[in-house]
Amino acid sequence: MPDEPFDRLFDFPAEEGPAENGSESPGDEPNQELVVAYTDGACSGNPGPGGWAWVVPDGPYAAGFEAQTTNQRMELTATLEAVRTFAGPLLVVSDSTYVVHCFRDGWWEKWLRKGWVNAKKEPVANRDLWEPLIEAVRARGNVDFRWVKGHSGDRWNDEADRLAVEAGTLQTDLAG
Q1: Active-site pick, 75, 81, 144, 158
Q2: How many CA atoms lie within 13 A of 98 on its CB side?
Q3: Each residue of 91-128: pLDDT tens digit?
Q4: How far apart are CA 110 and CA 143, in angstroms?
Q5: How many domains does the chain have?
Q6: For a disulfide at 96, which of 27, 42, 67, 75, Cβ 3.0-4.6 Å?
Q7: Can 101 be counted among the known catalytic residues?
């Protein structure tokens, strides 16, 4: 991990404490290496054509697209695809507070308790993506989340953004 300060409530290295979803730290599983996946979503117009991507530093990546979508849906899709792709301990690094705060602040627990309504007593937006994402994170117990500021020069966040924009612009899937 970089030699930078961590917010003790959230941005700590995996070996220093529990994961934000209430499970043991993702790096605690024996014989399984922690995978770090940067995720991002992009949309030209909101709604409009969009793309999503995840990338593992110096490793694999994937990106996809939708013809008519929103940026939030692409952020969720990128995260869901990363969670579905990697079976072992996973740290999702995202510039989406929408995704990160859901798990950090336990929004999902309130949504489940209140029958999928938000704090404004309105139906939770993008429930069709939230439900499988929350189910996968809960079932696994080895997924953690960290926020990174977007467009701030973070190499791998910028790469996830580039891939998401490319997939959305070209309306094509990418993998490598």
Answers
A1: 75
A2: 22
A3: 999 999 999 999 999 999 999 999 999 989 999 999 99
A4: 19
A5: 1
A6: 75
A7: no
